[in-house]
């Protein structure tokens, strides 16, 4: 759980690819196409993180001591800058995502003066394991007791005279828990890259990113020159928590900040029109963002498939990728799988290892909300290292098919093999009422190595939500060159 301690940064890999075909989906004028290419080569960076006054070790201990999963943060930071806001309990209550309390929590549920939900709620801790219940072991100011702290927010200076007024921004969601909403007052944008892959650009006024994702956007600087507020709050499902930065047209540093929001303090769209023009990753049926250039998976059946029942198990803070097995953060530290690929064979630890054949097509089927007691499952941000996956299927209910091909035949509407998105990180459904859901992720094994597949909510990973996928294990070198061998 190192992100909350500040262990993150951005790496920009400049592409060799000719992107003219990408920009010409946004504009027709060749000058604009060229200007966008220039803007994309000289982007602005926004690394968005969430911050707690407690360190990661302290934070994790709060959950294990109190027996309750605690997820209450202090600030959203942009490029390491931010403030701690205390706008008052009444205001925070009014900023709750509409319907959230009605759907997910008992009537009358109140957030704290930090915008956090009461830790004691069974709906938050799940069951039947919510037995320790020691809220007295939660230190002061974790859940409530807001103390404001004034600082400065990140500011991005942009020049409308450059690149025909186009500016590109890379937004990195380097958060521990938060799911970040993003908007710039009065400026719409084109979302053109997701997780390092180009997508057919789409125009939005706000977007939501989950921890572990990177998005790139193209913005036209065609408004009255001035200082525009960027609203980058938590999207509100886990906490009402505001976050801000500003975009300044060069020479207007002294202007007043704009007050023309698309998003409220707590991340809610301010009108139905804004909602309609926003990108929400939890709209799982429609969230594809097609790859550009077109890139689709092999049709029909994959060569191998792995069914993983994921979710909470045994304690409010324990999560599994495989039915009941918990991934310890020091898994195989003494016998790393890279050097000892068979070290877990025949042991309990092998339940935390999947082996795939080099060159094969693999389906990972993730089932949520079927584990005993895990009936109202929170979203998970599923992140695979080593290769991206296409989400080819999403449906409700319990996965009960002998193969993916059979499921495709029986419920063709739940599958998309023509235009699925291709990403590092995918959301699983938020099962508010206990309904079960499944996802099917397909990928081609072309990058042999021991890769982690895990939930990017760091508290869930700390609680065991990881598994090793040994991709192309049959193609790993038998003889490790001497200089790379362990002593
Ligand atoms: Cu998770």
Automatic annotation (TrEMBL):
Q: SUPFAM superfamilies given for it?
A: Cupredoxins
- State the source organism's domain of life: Eukaryota
Indicate the segments forming the Plastocyanin-like domain, all copies.
Answer: 46-233, 342-471
Please indicate if the UniProt record lists Protein transport as a keyword. Answer: no
PROSITE patterns, alphabetized: MULTICOPPER_OXIDASE1 (PS00079), MULTICOPPER_OXIDASE2 (PS00080)
MF-aspect GO terms: copper ion binding; oxidoreductase activity
**What keyword terms does UniProt attach to this protein?**
Glycoprotein, Metal-binding, Oxidoreductase, Repeat, Signal
What PANTHER family does this protein's entry cite? Answer: LACCASE-RELATED, MULTI-COPPER OXIDASE
| Family note | Belongs to the multicopper oxidase family.
This protein is called Uncharacterized protein
